[in-house]
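tool=predict chain=A
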Amino acid sequence: MDFFSEDGLPKDSAVQNAIMPVEDFDHMTANNVMLINQNFNKYQVLRRHPFRFFNFRYGFLNVLSICLLPWPRFTRFQDPHVPISFRKSVFEKVLNLHRDAWNETSHNRFRNRNDNTIWLIRYYQLVTAQFNPRTPFVGKKYNIGEMKKIVNDINTGKHKMICINDQNVSMAEFDNLTKQLRSTFRSKLPQKSEFEK
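tool=predict ok
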């Protein structure tokens, strides 16, 4: 029950955040939030669904959402680097509402500053309260260079999901680190699942 509730709603965390641009990808986050703000009034959304946006499962991250209350529009949501649960109906609605934006994005061979991302669909799911709150700490993102932390997380089962980013390592380092990773998985999960046989 980590991805969907008993009533079929995706599980997610509606923790608000602010855009802090560092790279071109951050333009896409702004593009997503722009479309949300064009279609939804932040205060109306928060009044309709207060316990989806301020929830004990979010722990200390509720402070972020509280600090952003004075801002009249959504600034961003915290974007997890773990699998996200979606409703097909939300996908269809967003693709229909923003057909031009999605057509432009899908025709770009490489990422472009004008693109939108799949997080736009997630944001729609959040602001329309089509989710049940879960802890944002269900998963963790690591860079592959943090192999000691990754191995520890796998061995202790600290998180249910992890995302390993292969950023900023040479091919030689990558090969060595992935060998360590495979060895850890073989040790932790010695038997293949029925899907791997």
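The mean pLDDT is 92. Residues 171-188 form the longest helix (18 residues).
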